[in-house]
């Protein structure tokens, strides 16, 4: 159980931190202001392309792909600390081609894609030329139970025909989003985990319609966004199915382990940022003749934040280390553990940071409400807290059988 | 300690509930959709004027003014239950001319306004013809300590000259907002609670500039809104000062007691609505073969919500009863107690309702994120939790002296 | 919903408070020291008999029996405030013949006892000459589900024969304990709520054996105590059955409503005492150059304690008022609500009071650990938190059907 | 940051686990029953001496002393996992000569003792022939602020004279307790951290009097116990002072780092035991037709317990690793972090385990109330939560200076 970064990991991390310090933090405020000032904010501003090019040139690119011919060959444990660093700014992940859901989609293609699928979609994704979305959650049913899925991917001869309605398809609003991964029911009468298929859908295929973009606590998260998408008789060749019909669940399972570590480490980075902001505000403003930090229980809040961040980080690093050393099956409980504990930790700390900022905290002058929305969504996305607690308990009870 | 409504209170409450059921709930969804669809949503849609007229015709008007020549003459205890009812819909309070900050501003004018001030501003406010804003909080200092206030209201001959910057001036975006109550420093060397004045400022006075509208968790709350406002050498006759120079704190003190009861009762109404939505969703969706309500700790969440709402309501009713029978000074601890407990209760229940809704909970398909934003702001507005806890503790310790 | 005491209630309450102040508080420390110093602490010290006589002489006797020919004829709402007062000292309830489980047992006899049963057991209980126990919970099964009960009360001719093992039979260690109420299975195949009988068992009946006294957090609660009792072929005439065979559940149901209000109000009295002790300690000791009360979040703790006590009291008073005005069936949700909220509130406040006392808090120099044990047991006794939350949720869901 | 045990550590840990499984767990129930059945339970039962001899013979002895000529030479990181294992049974630590406060006292002597002091006290302690106590906390002042200490250790010629009153002197009731370490004021006018001395006091020195043994939640923790001790003109040669006059604080500081890790790891062992008991009970009892574990939020409780134990362990292991690699000064924040988080975690889990046991949970049939008392005391001993949170916050704020 060694959580220290490898020497390669340490080297890349140092370079990444310096990139964040020199290239990202100084421009992010202006970037978000510029973006909001656009009549149409669903665009890629030039600064993004510039920074992507710089990051790529420095080798800070595709860091999330461990031991792969395609990526940077960095272990989950090493990447975890990088994801934390990227999590400090909402602007950062894409700059390193490390943003969800593209990371998960690329992993799926690396592991399950055909040569043709790789050539058509994986290479441009790895290159940062196009973006993608993942269409799994549905508005009509409780998606916490994946077996509720109603969308269909029916085989008709050499074609697969998609029908259904998805939502919370993150990234679908991005102007470069060219491909969706759609999951649907192919063999309704097959065994429980062999009923569904994953299909690669070019976004401009007839029958695909983005019905609306969904706000999260009032924010649309431009230029990525979260879409509600209808699929009406969308016809594609069977070769669009990833790994063949009926393997959707298997792929989904493998996709989510590392993705959850990434989300959690980014959330830890966000929590560090929130604590940082909290301390800056609490030490720079006065009330009742004292810096706010010296009033009431404020120091306790800071101490508790530090303690809960430390604990969350260690558990997430252990999970990354387990993924590296024992694989997804050897990290099942831990993946669910961090998925419960980290977003809740972030939500709590951000809530307290908001309180310590007074009215400014709920405005857009600080990134706190965005962090709050991120935390709040993470408690639902990739499985709600309840499902993950259930899995942790189930595995715990198995030890006693 | 009798919390039952009086017979008059009961009668009005019954009428109000029926108005809500027949006129408000059926149209509110469409109203908010129509409003959001406007190119410029800072407008009063016709349905609002229609419903205001109906409500007025039924005597459901200015219900918040107890024992007054101007209002409906309803006690705080009776009004509390009405405020709860109105709190179930964000659309409702204005329909009965009972929305903040106009209610507080009207109360100030009833109690402290000169005849001239009453004629010019109170009567049209009571009539629902104009709206108002209250300019107290400042961006540059911790406003939780009111003595931090930096804006000035300097007497120069027969004039008072206003300078400073305010924010969270709620309602200032409303097209009918015609008058602001501004609070500023008049006698910097006077005794601690006689330094400030409150001044009535027509919104179109030269030197008054709404610099921007502030989003709360991404929502601008059109058509009311929360503004950041600069006052630059705003000159007004001394007669614009309410109750004379140096009485700002005294007025503010009296303004806040009933206002906090109103806020809290509306929050209780919102909590009932959130619980209602939670139960509807939890009983109508299934996962893992059961209605969601029967999974894990969900019934516990519902039970705890019911218990905390009941407790919060009783404490708020007691506070209203104390205001009626012992006045603001006799309800000081209780006013602060509810100000702490009710918004936190609402925040918790809404957070849980969001969780039970899944992704839909963070979208705009349900009023949950708006309720969340309301709860979150209430924990800061009219004094943050910390200040109110401090006051409750101080009064508690005094009993032991 | 009028929670003010009636004029008679106010008069008795005033007398009771003065009795507590003059007769109880000054001697309680010494009483418990004397009791602990006994070789055999399962005794009634003379001071108890003395104070009982004084209380009786003042009419402060059997205050818990509302509208009865037997008791003081005080409503639940009026008695609630008296129970709170008694709850401030563990020594108090018996002095007024108002201690559990005798109160509940007397109520059962008033409502369901035959003339003979009343004469034999009720009158001496009302007189304070004997004490009683209630034998319901069983060690071998989860007693949170009352239908799990395994003990039997089998009818054989004119006799009823008892077999089984009970525990947490409170009061059975008292030297004056002469009678037990035993609940057991009579018609195993009868309808779900008509299977059990309640039987009056003289403690010295052959076959009744107190196996051991159970400590609660290390305390035996002398001279009352909580016993584990075996019943082996205990034979009694059928006339010992209360209200006839098969009515056990019906009686249990009615017994518990007022009893839970009593428990909760005593717990509120204990919470007030704990808050009082907390403030005394926090204002009288210094650390780091300040009274402890001014350190960190301590004032917040005091404020939160005050707020949660106020809320718990109001909800309990409402429940008492409902019992008076709508009966047990009209107060079902509220009885369960207070049973959840009040013991948890007490446990939290006592835990914080302990923390503020430092090491002294966990010792016997203060009544805090006894209060903690009381709170902790109350979360299990008369139905655990979980069962009560379940009932509250169930009744809440019924409103939506 | 490598938390895996070293190969030597792993070897000893395996041996220890097997000792616990084969020698300790099978006898502990009987041991505590036998002890409680003693007329005088302040004794060492033969089983203890037997098991000590066995453990010593297997090299499972003095495992807590890292890199020392005197102990087992095991790092803090390695020992941490052994302490966890010992923490599963209250009977265990002494068997391996690893129980507080002897461990801390031995460490003090190893690092600061003179040759003579080592010969007289350290060797028999290392040998397990005698036991010791540590006399620091005082009843008369808030000992959370160590500068409040009032006891004196006055130099008079070649002697040091002790006066004062101490309490919570753990272990002083043990029949083998032969020596106390007393801390008192020597130079009242010296610099803040050079005022106090630590003095070795044979327990039978004239003037030393154990006034009473203090119960903790009703338990006296025989045969160790916690004493209140008066020191009246206790005269000793100056050579009894450890490391010379005025070095008391310096010694205390160094003593506490590893000691806190030991306490926390034992608490984690206790938490694992509590979770184990909770699951056994919840899966073996039924209510409402289901195993208790499947009712309401019980699985959530189990999941949360697992998650909080994992997090607490990782943070404690990191702290041990920091102590090994960076020394006490490099682990200051982390030592305080675990001191806050671990006892609270244990208290919460034990409270929930009690609830899941029903009445049995508060009795002595399970070790749960003892674990609760351990957790509760740990939140006060070696610095209360508040002081440790204060230190964590202070160090956090320093990063921002």
UniProtKB/TrEMBL annotation, chains A, B, C, D:
Keywords, comma-separated and alphabetical: FAD, Flavoprotein, Oxidoreductase
GO annotation, cellular component aspect: cytoplasm
Cofactor(s) this protein cannot do without: FAD
GO biological process, one term: fatty acid beta-oxidation using acyl-CoA dehydrogenase
GO molecular function ontology, one term from the record: flavin adenine dinucleotide binding
Domain Acyl-CoA oxidase/dehydrogenase middle positions: 133-234
Organism superkingdom: Bacteria
Acyl-CoA dehydrogenase/oxidase C-terminal domain span: 246-394
Keyword Flavoprotein found: yes
Acyl-CoA dehydrogenase/oxidase N-terminal domain mapped to chain residues: 10-129
One Pfam assignment: Acyl-CoA_dh_M
Gene3D superfamilies linked: Acyl-CoA dehydrogenase/oxidase, N-terminal domain, Butyryl-CoA Dehydrogenase, subunit A, domain 2, Butyryl-CoA Dehydrogenase, subunit A, domain 3
Subunit structure: Homodimer.
Family under the similarity heading: Belongs to the acyl-CoA dehydrogenase family.
Name of this protein: Acyl-CoA dehydrogenase
Protein source organism: Litoribrevibacter albus
């Amino acid at each position: 159980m060694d959580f220290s970064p490898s020497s390669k990991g340490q080297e890349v991390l140092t370079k990444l931190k310096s990139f964040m310090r020199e290239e990202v933090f100084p421009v992010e405020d202006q970037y978000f202001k510029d973006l909001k000032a656009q009549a149409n904010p669903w665009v890629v501003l030039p600064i993004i392309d510039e920074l992507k090019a710089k990051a790529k040139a420095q080798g800070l690119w595709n860091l999330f792909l461990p031991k792969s011919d395609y990526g940077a060959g960095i272990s989950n444990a090493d990447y975890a600390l990088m994801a934390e660093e990227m999590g400090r700014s909402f602007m950062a992940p894409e700059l390193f081609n490390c943003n969800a859901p593209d990371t998960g989609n690329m992993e799926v293609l690396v592991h399950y894609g055909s040569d043709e699928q790789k050539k058509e979609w994986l290479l441009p994704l790895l290159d940062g030329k196009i973006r993608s979305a993942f269409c799994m959650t549905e508005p009509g049913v409780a998606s916490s139970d994946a077996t509720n899925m109603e969308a269909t991917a029916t085989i008709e001869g050499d074609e697969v025909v998609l029908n259904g309605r998805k939502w919370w398809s993150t990234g679908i609003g991005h102007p470069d989003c060219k491909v969706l991964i759609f999951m649907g029911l192919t063999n309704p009468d097959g065994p429980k985990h062999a009923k569904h298929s994953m299909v690669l859908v070019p976004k401009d295929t007839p029958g695909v319609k983005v019905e609306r973009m969904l706000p999260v606590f009032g924010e649309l998260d431009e230029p990525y966004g979260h879409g509600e998408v209808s699929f009406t008789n969308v016809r594609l060749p069977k070769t669009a199915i990833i790994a063949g019909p009926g393997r959707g669940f298997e792929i989904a399972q493998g996709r989510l382990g590392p993705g959850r570590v990434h989300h959690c480490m980014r959330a830890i980075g966000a929590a560090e940022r929130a604590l940082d902001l909290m301390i800056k505000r609490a030490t720079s403003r006065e009330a009742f003749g004292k810096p706010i930090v010296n009033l009431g229980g404020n120091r306790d809040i800071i101490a508790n934040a530090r303690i809960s961040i430390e604990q969350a980080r260690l558990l997430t690093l252990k999970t990354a280390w387990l993924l590296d050393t024992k694989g997804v099956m050897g990290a099942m409980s831990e993946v669910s553990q961090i998925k419960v504990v980290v977003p809740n930790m972030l939500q709590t700390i951000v809530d307290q940071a908001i309180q310590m900022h007074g009215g400014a905290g709920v405005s857009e002058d600080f990134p706190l409400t965005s962090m709050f929305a991120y935390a709040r969504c993470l408690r639902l996305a990739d499985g709600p807290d309840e499902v993950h607690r259930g899995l942790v308990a189930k595995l715990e009870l198995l030890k006693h059988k």
